[in-house]
Amino acid sequence: METVSRNPDKAAQRGVYPPSFCRWRLLLAVMAVTQISVLLIGVGTLREFSLVWLGMVTLYAQALALMTALGVCVSGAWLGRLSARGAWLGSWVVAVLVALAVSYSAGIIGTVLGVGPGRQNFEMFLWQSVLAVALVSVALLRYLFIRAQWRAQVLAQSEARVQALQATIRPHFLFNSLNTIASLIPEEPISAERAIEDLADLFRGSMRRADSLISLSEELDLARRYLQMEQRRLGDRLIVEWRVSALPEGASVLPLILQPLLENAVAHGIQTRTEGGELKVYGRAEKDNIVITISNPLGPDDHDSSGHGIALANIRERLELAFGPAASLITHQNDKQFFAVLSLPYVENTDN
Asked: Which of 16, 69, 174, 208 has its CA at 20 to 30 Å from residue 111's CA atom?
């Protein structure tokens, strides 16, 4: 999956820039486009087409394409100082200049070794190579530009949708929190004061951009504050077990991605049971992902996952908008327990 910008507003102000040609996936794409171009040239010149011709032309074309892509890669820092339009044009100019230099060198060396175009065909060989790179690079950069514009538009639309999704979560959360504080004020004013402080921290976290990332440790701290607030309200009916020491400390996650899951677990698995129950939160690292599982007992009338409301759908949509298919939220249950399994790609926390 490609990394998306966490700040579409700034990206829009700076314009749409070319992707980095230092990435191996883009280099593979360059090689694929080059090979298709070679095959098309071979089909267009059937008289010269043979396995020997195909092998020699493929070897030269791939070397020329990779050297050109690496030239654009090395020029990335300089291109980044230009305007967006200048960066695209500069990428094409760099590609053409590198192709000219590589073709000239290959023609000279090949001629000296007796396997090149020779003096008579040297100029034609040079201009054919440069023209081919110029045309193919124009087509490839045009495709990448359209794709980058499309992604920028999708991100801008996604930001509005994510904010709308967050807005549907906050009122419900605020209502439950205020009820908790109100129930504590008459008999436990000190606990009520601490609950207000926890609520302030939680809402400070919810004020963040919905598609920005925070450290996993900060998200877990917010989750603990929420459950502490619920424990003040439910007392011994709510037992919480944390097993998250195996999670990587340097990971980043979306803000308040756990709180709606915990709220559902409390509302449907603990609050509806006279005896309460145990809520478990455990996490682990799994290859390039972090996996967090929340389990709770089923309530007396909660024998299907539909009772967990709109929050699950909202979380899934947030994950889709932020990470695409790399993230998921899977729910399942047995006769006694309901499980929510959250899987996120490991993203290094850069705030520290």
From this structure: 69
